[in-house]
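Morning. Coffee machine broken again, so started the prediction first thing and wrote up yesterday's gels while waiting. Chain of 243 residues, entered below exactly as on the submission form.
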Amino acid sequence: MCVLVLSASFYSNDILRSYYLLKLGKGDFQTRRAILQKLRALNCVDIEEHLVRLMTRNADVDSRLFSANSLKEASPLSPHIVYLIAELLKSGCDEDRLFSAFVLSGIGESAAPAINAIVEATSDDTPLVRKYCCEAIANVKRPVSLFLQALIARLREDKDEQVLKAALVSLSTFGADSSGAVVETVKLLEVGSYELKAQASRLLGSIGPNAKGAVSCLKLLSKHEVDYVRESAVDALRRIEAQ
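Came back before lunch.
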């Protein structure tokens, strides 16, 4: 009798998992979140894989958004799940690449298995994909030349302000290793918007003494009429001339 009860319980949980996985693609955000919690309580081992499937081209936008946010919240993700997301980033439709890049930008170092796809997608046709990929590189925090070159290429080639800002912020996380970005960053000091000028100054400050080639431009900006632009330049000069 005991064996029969256990067997019935097993099949009951199996049916519940299948039922909740089907329901996960329907309803409002709160309903889906409640279903996701029930699946976790049932120790459903393939939740993240199902979320990846829900994030693809066959899903409605609400399912895509829910799945992408849920995957970010589930970080760190397993290498297998990251690989599936990387495949979407490499060969998916425009929407697949957008949501994949969004997820990878928010899962920290667990995005490392996807880094080659991320670097390649920094030159994607969609500006928001490029922005998210720049952010993902910074989160992985591995200052190898391939990553730095991809970010510097954004400074040199991109026209989208949000992408440029993301590349500057990401390069700042690498400190002195970003010294190869000085020339392109100085150009942004000269022609960028106020926000880009300020962020470019912060990057140069993080590079430190290796950014001495930017001192003359920073001195001009240290007299800028806009407070945060001026203050960023002053701080960068202090850090560059510290030694």
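The chain has a mean pLDDT of 90. Going to sketch it on the whiteboard this afternoon.
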